[in-house]
Amino acid sequence: MIYYNYVKKIAPDVNNINLSCARTILMTSDKLTFKEICNKKNIPNPDLFDLFTGNKLYIEKDRTGCGSTNVRIVKDNKSYKNDRIIEKYIPGSSFSISLHVTHKSYHIMSINRQIIQKKKNHIKLKALVVNIYPSFKNHLYNFVENILNAFPKLRGFIGLDFIEYKGELFLIEINSRYTTSMSLIERCKKKNPLDYICDRGKNIAGKSCRLELI
């Protein structure tokens, strides 16, 4: 919410920066509001995941938390705190997409693998592998475009966190800001993320780079 408050404060005086509007930042920062919009716009998310009939698990996390901070695997699908939310646990692989978005188009800067650590029912982001080429890459364009249609005021550097499970993609979060994975793009592709603003330089395949976080 710090970023939301900052943009809300400067927005009346700054009109030449390609940023998401404050309202969009609020909608993507509040995970309850975010989930409601995804359901309304038919964006695949944990609510649409079919839980197994056997051992049902859920994720409990902060309603306005950042990344994998304070995230737990639980068996109860009820939250007893107003600042926490519950969503279905998806036993798939975690990824993110680094985007630069303008009012006319978007660029996929990189696709990234998130290495997740599960320890004593707590989930943490252990590492990032930036600039990968997964087998489902061609399916991402429709996935991204549906998300941008649902949140049409997203602008600038955007990170999409999602889970892939048996060929299906489920949106987990939208980070409407510069993300950690973007800091490795220049090392991986010899192209600075700022070059995507003016569409400068060739978008070469590059290499994958790993960043350890914990």
Describe the 3D structure.
This protein is α+β, with helices and mostly antiparallel strands. The protein has one domain: ATP-grasp fold, B domain (D-amino Acid Aminotransferase, Chain A, domain 1). Helix content is 20%, strand content 32%. Strands 1, 2, 3, 4, 5, 6, 7, 8 and 9 form a nine-stranded antiparallel β-sheet that branches. Strand 5 and strand 6 form a beta hairpin. Helix 1 packs antiparallel against helix 2. The mean pLDDT is 90.
Short description:
It is built from five helices and nine strands; from the N terminus they run H-H-H-E-E-E-E-E-E-H-E-E-H-E.
Instruction: State mean pLDDT (0 to 100 scale).
Output: 90
Q: What number of structural domains do the residues give? A: 1
* Uncertain stretches of 5 or more adjacent residues: none
CATH architectural designation: 2-Layer Sandwich
Number of helices: 5
* Range of strand content: 25-35%
Key attributes of the depicted protein:
D-amino Acid Aminotransferase, Chain A, domain 1, 5 helices, globular, 20% helix, 9-stranded antiparallel β-sheet, alpha+beta, 214 residues
List the helices and strands and how they pair.
Layout: H1 2-10, H2 22-29, H3 31-40, E1 58-62, E2 71-74, E3 84-88, E4 93-101, E5 106-119, E6 122-130, H4 140-150, E7 156-165, E8 168-175, H5 185-189, E9 209-212
Antiparallel strand pairs: 1-2, 1-3, 2-6, 4-5, 4-7, 5-6, 6-9, 7-8
